[in-house]
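G., the chain you wanted modeled:
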Amino acid sequence: MQTPIANSPREDGDREERRLLQRVAAGDDAAFRRLYDRLAEIHDGAYADKDCRRLARRLEKYRFDLFTFLERENVDATNNHGERTIRPAVLMRKNYYGNRSERGAAVQAQMMSIFRTLKMRGIDPLEYLERQLRASLANGAPFTLPELVEKIAA
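Predicted structure as tokens:
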């Protein structure tokens, strides 16, 4: 007799859980069955150590998110892309010895977000900011960072 993968889908209709349960019930992939059975054994175990119990709870909570990369080609198994994306901001913060205030940290976070978004869209951030500043000076109405963020998001 096989160990059940999980309890029946929650009342809120968790689509991912239902999809995986249907896939396994249909016998589409024995390897997934074994993987989720083993994961159930791990997260249902009795652990004396509080850190092990916490990890088991997290494994149970995210059990249907952990292996998305195995089912979908466009999903990477790691978050390396995200880490590489924020690396320039982290290095800048480190090289300038952090921020001296919460306001400074907020401004830096907004500026790094603006710069990374513009770069990802193939726009030179310095040229863009220069154009925006010149336009606001010509109009006599300076812009704020939130206004700039809204413009970029649009």
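The helical segments are 15-25, 30-43, 50-61, 68-71, 80-95, 102-120, 125-139, 145-153.

Shout if anything looks off.
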